[in-house]
Specification:
About 40% of the residues lie in helices and about 25% in strands. By secondary structure, the protein is of the alpha+beta class. It folds into 6 domains: about 10-85 and about 205-250, 3-Layer(aba) Sandwich (D-Maltodextrin-Binding Protein, domain 2), CATH 3.40.190; about 90-205, D-Maltodextrin-Binding Protein, domain 2, CATH 3.40.190; about 270-375, Beta-Lactamase (2-Layer Sandwich); about 390-465, 2-Layer Sandwich (Beta-Lactamase), CATH 3.30.450.20; about 475-565, no CATH class; about 575-720, Histidine kinase-like ATPase, C-terminal domain (Heat Shock Protein 90), CATH 3.30.565. Strands 2-1-3-11-4-12 form a 6-stranded mixed β-sheet, sandwiched between helices. Strands 5, 6, 7, 8, 9 and 10 form a 6-stranded mixed β-sheet that branches. A 5-stranded antiparallel β-sheet has the order 14-13-19-18-17. Helix 1 (about 20-35) crosses helix 9. It starts with 7 loop residues before the first strand and ends with a helix.
């Protein structure tokens, strides 16, 4: 057992599928952990380049690399284990085309090719090298070259007529072997494609064991990995994530093409028995079973060949099959060489051979100890979707429901009936069609008074979506209360400024109305008796009424601005122009600004954003209030508030609010967006925290830069509103 207990970190390249392989990767890691006596953590790299970067940086113990990566890192690795497929640790690449439109090397000119990925050996690099060795340059040979990401997608492109050629790895230069490989990807459609060219061979891909491992760790790993296919559990797990039946220590780039090698300990037995349990034939790859030599045992009973303890359950199965006349299967436990193991035995009546009057029984016994030890984690992984307490579903890219757990049907009774038109499905598909922008908040669906937040992930093979759904109603209600509390706080901060702003027009409205009343009282008698009134008197009254209307209109606008701010949080967003909202927030602070600082505007044309006008007003008002209150009222002549709006290079809307105040200490700057973090005792400390939440909910970012004595810069970046493409046109494209 390896003395160290530190986890072994293994990184896999990203060309694996999304569901079955991930579960088997987990099982493979657990099987290795049991055999090594220490944790093995396996993760899948997002890209081939990321895997190489981790290897170069020395941050992984093992990595599943392409053939090129194994070759490149072999000189500095502890060891490289090459994958064995169909008995070979070399492989080729095959160029395939449609069987009804055969191609040759001479007819490739001008054809369209579907490659897998730039770093894929069998799907790109190997066929390119082969063509170049023949004097053919792919960029001159093909009229179109596309990278589709997986073998399945590349082959599908040829099936659909979107490409003429694709490349796929081939263990042997044999059309029948190639047909088996194609069938594993295409099923019944495999006969529609045919290989027409096989490339030179290369050493296979495999596991790179890095120098982070000690020599002792490396040797034990090599021993475990090269023998995993010799017991009943290892083969299935190796076939899952790696599509291999075993590993061999790399013989070096100059090694000859693979040769057969004997098995060193396969724990399974096959044979033929008569109805009395005598061995007509008995065979094991290693020549041993149950700790005994099973060579040359023909004519002996099972008891004589395997020992009474091992043969007893097998003979009970033979008797049961003789009585019933059909197949029989039995799992049992047995102690062999002091170790308790689990076996699965199968006995099957054989079809009679020509001239054979006796009944023969086929026997297969396998060691399934490894799989039995992994049953609990297997059931745990398999039961996760079923027992997950919140809705979980998988969709095709057309909205077809592939799977949904019981919690989904409890929450959404009409999901199956409505299909792609259900709001939940529509929201997930819309999210995917928009490209699932990084950093943008998860979509939220409002149904029957409850809010559901979706976490959508892309599935690639086959294409689809996995959707986790969380009930966030309580959180939304708490957020609404927090936003409303912040609005009231902001309104309280504005009270003095707005009161001053309203007092000015209100004062001259009242004064003018008093003047008009006095003048009309003075002119009442002449007007009633028809005596002409001097024109200057009437002009004075009209001028006062005009000023009164202007003042009342100004009061109306102030009230409208306050109503915009005090709206409740929205249920749906709309397209909003940023600059008018920013101007509106500045108007609300006009009275405060006049007595605090000089305002500098730098506004440019910016695109609209998907937002709610009330929240956007609250956001800008919070930022402006924060900036204004940071300015020293005793230094009005030097105080400057700069507000800018422009479009970034990537098309996003950027708004900057910069003050010339005293700035923030680094400790406070690090916590500036936390609730209740404030430098002013009279402040609630909620404004910037709520602002940060608003910005992130809109898919944007809010950054703060500050230096003591130099002021603070707050920068808001919001994604521009992008029209949602028509789903039908996207599917058609």
């Amino acid at each position: 057992m390896i003395a160290s207990t530190a986890p072994i970190r293994c990184l896999l390249y990203p060309s694996l599928g999304e569901i079955r392989e991930h579960v088997r990767v987990e099982l493979f890691a657990r099987a290795l952990s049991e055999r090594l006596g220490r944790p093995v953590v396996m993760t899948i790299a997002p890209t081939y380049e990321a895997l190489e970067a981790e290897l170069v940086a020395g941050r992984v113990d093992m990595a599943w690399g392409t053939a090129e990566q194994c070759n490149a890192f072999e000189p500095q690795a502890r060891a490289v284990l090459r994958a064995v497929r169909s008995g070979s640790w070399h492989y080729h690449s095959a160029l395939v085309c449609r069987a009804d439109a055969p191609l040759t090397l001479e007819t490739l000119q001008g054809k369209r090719v579907a490659w897998v990925a730039p770093r894929s050996t069998g799907g790109h690099l190997l066929p390119v090298r082969h063509l170049e060795s023949l004097g053919l340059r792919p960029d001159k040979l093909f009229s179109e070259q596309r990278f589709l990401g997986t073998y399945r997608k590349a082959l599908d492109a040829v099936l659909r007529g979107e490409s003429d050629v694709a490349a796929i790895f081939s263990n042997h230069t044999d059309a029948l072997a190639m047909r088996a490989t194609l069938t594993s990807y295409l099923g019944a459609d495999a006969p529609q494609l045919a290989p027409f060219l096989f490339t030179i061979s290369t050493l296979a891909d495999g596991l790179i064991l890095t120098r982070r491992l000690s020599e002792a760790d490396t040797e034990q790993l090599v021993s475990v990995l090269t023998r995993m296919n010799t017991d009943g559990a290892g083969l299935e797990m190796l076939m899952g994530p790696f599509r291999v039946e075993g590993f061999i220590r790399s013989p070096g780039p100059g090694a000859p093409v693979s040769a057969p090698r004997p098995s060193q300990g396969a724990e399974y037995v096959v044979g033929e028995l008569d109805t009395q349990g005598r061995c007509l034939r008995l065979w094991s790859p290693s020549g041993r079973a149950f700790g005994r030599d099973v060579r040359d045992v023909e004519g002996r009973t099972l008891d004589q060949a395997l020992g009474s303890e091992a043969s007893e359950p097998l003979m009970s199965l033979v008797r049961a099959v003789n009585r019933g006349g059909s197949d029989g299967r039995l799992e049992y436990r047995l102690t062999v060489d002091g170790e308790e193991k689990f076996y699965a035995a199968e006995v099957t009546p054989c079809a009679p051979a020509l001239g054979d009057n006796g009944v023969r029984l086929g026997l297969l016994v396998r060691d399934v100890s490894g799989m039995r030890s992994l049953e609990d984690p297997l059931y745990r992984l398999a039961s996760f979707p079923l027992l997950h307490p919140e809705p979980l579903l998988e969709l095709g890219m057309d909205g077809a429901l592939r799977y949904s757990n019981p919690a989904t049907h409890v929450a959404f009774h009409d999901l199956v009936e409505r299909g792609p038109t259900h709001p939940l499905v529509h929201a997930a598909l819309t999210w995917a069609w928009r490209g699932m922008p990084p950093g943008e908040p998860a979509p939220t669906v409002h149904l029957d008074g409850r809010y559901w937040e979706l976490t959508v992930t892309q599935l690639w093979d086959p294409p689809g979506l996995r959707v986790f759904v969380r009930d966030v109603t309580l959180r939304k209600q708490l957020e609404a209360k927090l936003f409303q509390a912040d609005r009231l706080s902001a309104l309280g901060s504005l009270a003095a400024a707005v009161g001053h702003e309203m007092n000015n027009p209100l004062a001259f409205v009242l004064a003018n109305l008093s003047y008009v009343r006095e003048e009309l009282e003075r002119l009442k008698q002449p007007l009633l008796t028809g005596v002409p009134v001097p024109r200057p008197d009437l002009d004075g009254i009209m001028e006062a009424l005009g000023e009164t209307v202007e003042g009342a209109t100004r009061l109306k606008h102030i009230v409208q601005d306050l109503r915009t701010l005090s709206r409740k949080p929205p249920e749906h967003r709309a397209r909003v122009a940023v600059q008018p909202v920013l101007e509106n927030a500045l108007k609300l602070l006009r009275g405060e600004l006049q007595h605090r600082a000089r305002l500098e505007r730098d506004f440019h044309d910016v695109p609209t954003v998907d937002a709610d006008e009330a929240r956007l007003t609250q956001l800008f008002l919070n930022l402006l209030l924060n900036a204004v209150q940071a300015l020293d009222p005793q230094d009005v002549a030097r105080n400057v508030l700069r507000v800018a709006a422009y479009t970034s290079e990537d098309g996003a809307v950027v708004v900057e609010v910069q003050d010339s105040g005293k700035g923030l200490h680094p400790d406070l700057l690090a916590r500036i967006f936390e609730p209740f973090a404030t430098a002013r005792p009279s402040s609630t400390g909620l404004g910037l925290s709520v602002s940060h939440t608003i910005v992130t909910d809109l898919g944007g970012t809010l950054r703060a830069e500050s230096r003591e004595g130099r002021g603070t810069l707050l920068t808001v970046t919001l994604p521009a509103a992008v029209p949602v493409a028509d789903p039908q046109s996207l599917r058609a494209g």
